[in-house]
Amino acid sequence: MKWDWNAVSGFMPHFWDGLRVTLEALALGSLLSFTLGLVWTLLMRTPTRWVRWPVGVVTEFVRNTPLLVQLFFLFYVLPEWGLTFSALTTGVFAIGLHYSTYTMQVYRAGIEAVPVGQWEAATALNLPRRRTWTAVILPQAIRRVVPALGNYVIAMLKDTPMLMVITVLEMLGQARLFSQQHFQFTEPVTVIGVAFILISYLASLLMRALERRLVR
Amino acid sequence: MTPGLWELVLKGVWTTIQLLVFGALLATAVSFVVGIARTHRLWIVRFVAGVYTEVFRGTSALVMIFWVYFVLPIVSGWQLVPLWAGTLALGLTYGAYGSEIVRGALNAVDPAQKEGGIALSFTPWQRLRLIVLPQAVPEMIPSFCNLLIELLKGTALVSVMGMGDLTFSANLVRLALQQSAEIYTYVLLIYFVIAFVLTRLMRGLEKRLKAGVGKDPGTGRAARELKRAQTTGVGVAGGAGLGGGAA
């Protein structure tokens, strides 16, 4: 078989469109998963069993079932319930929800890694509970968890192609569309594979730099 | 749902389980070969294994599946049976993640153990087989358990290629019933049950392997809590120093 550069150049405009959508989904999905994950973690630390138990069961369930099926579920079931969102919004919500069950573990480990003395000092200073969290515990915990969160950003990046199945035209969706119109599969799919390797490599470099700055 | 539709779903479950088992076997083989290669003494072997890991971890599993289905037949002239194509894509992708687990566990074995092997003039292969691996493998099990769940969730991706796994059957049922909530709820539950069974099986395996090398299997709630407290520095008196030191 022959590698066709014309197919590559023909695909590039579509590729940039797809890349924009991919990065948009990634940014919003990460933001949602970081926020929700912290919410789950804090809920899991409440003294009430009736809060902890349902949160634990639901997050365990979400973590152990495929994101792809969750996407289908949200995309087809929400409209049945009278909730209509754009495909991209549904996708961002699914990714954010799915990965929030991972980030919650990260936050938990980070919070538990804050030395007990810090809690005791906050008590000794008679800080209110809210101040203890916002001024003492979370700043230390979040600094520790940045590298692990970064890993999940890369994992989310690699799950964005799934949005294709709910009609979002991210990179792989664009490639499939292009393939269907021009009957050329090799070039677009390969371009995207290379793009993924490059983006995840850049992202890991970025994370390492960020990590160094935070640790300093 | 009618019995006919349930039969379709069960067929999908069977395909998913086959994919899971074959994918896991291939991924394990790849993990060990690549993971051991990354601790090899020749730099070229380490380098090739490292490139493999980066490429297959760097790309999306779904893109890899597309590549195996659409590009591989054009490049190589071989069209794989869907089950083998799916197995290949999943095994190679998750094997790359697994190789990092193997490498980490191999490096975590106490150097004195390897030195002991050298002192007894074992060959490198004997050291690996008789000393390093028996100690490293039990440490790998929890991470491999997580990876296995990831692989299970990854099998759903092959449905995009039209392979009749559980997710694909679910989509057919949705089209037949024109209702989505019921079937997708069942399907999510089925995946969850499979994942739960896998977790239990892996925990049993870990216990047996750890007992085999004379390590505390760490069973029971108390032991787990204590272990967590020791590693995180929360929960036991005097843990603060430990946690602070570790962090």
List keywords for this structure.
heterodimer; A: mainly alpha; 82% helix; B: 247 residues; mainly alpha; flat; disordered C terminus
Largest beta sheet of chain B, briefly? none
- Alpha-beta content class of chain A: mainly alpha
Secondary-structure element order of chain B, N to C: HHHHHHHHHH
Distance between the termini of chain A: 52 Å
Rounded to an integer in angstroms, the radius of gyration calculated over CA atoms of chain A is: 21 Å
Outline of chain B, from the CA principal axes? flat
Can you write the helix and strand succession of chain A as a string?
HHHHHHHH
Largest interface: A-B, 45 and 51 residues
Protein structure class of chain B: mainly alpha
For this structure, the quaternary state is heterodimer
For the sheet with most strands of chain A, the description reads: none
Q: Determine the number of helices of chain A (DSSP H or I, runs of at least 4 residues).
A: 8
Report the average pLDDT across residues of chain A.
Answer: 91
Spans where pLDDT lies below 50 across 5 or more residues of chain A: none
% residues in beta strands of chain A? under 5%
Radius of gyration of chain B: 22 Å
Number of strands of chain A: 0
Distance between the termini of chain B: 54 Å
- Fraction of residues in helix of chain A: over 70%
Total E-strand runs of chain B: 0
Low-confidence stretches of chain B: 231-247
Structure, explained:
The complex is a heterodimer of chains A (216) and B (247). With 216 residues, chain A is mostly helical. Chain A is 82% helix and 0% strand. The N and C termini of chain A lie far apart (52 Å). By secondary structure, chain B is an all-alpha fold. Chain B is 81% helix and 0% strand. Chain B contains ten helices and no strands. Chain B has helices at residues 3-37, 43-58, 61-76, 82-108, 111-119, 124-155, 166-177, 181-212, 220-232, 239-246. In chain B, α2 (43-58) packs across α4 (82-108) and α9 (220-232) crosses α10. The radius of gyration of chain B is 22 Å and the shape is flat. Residues 231-247 of chain B have low confidence and may be disordered.
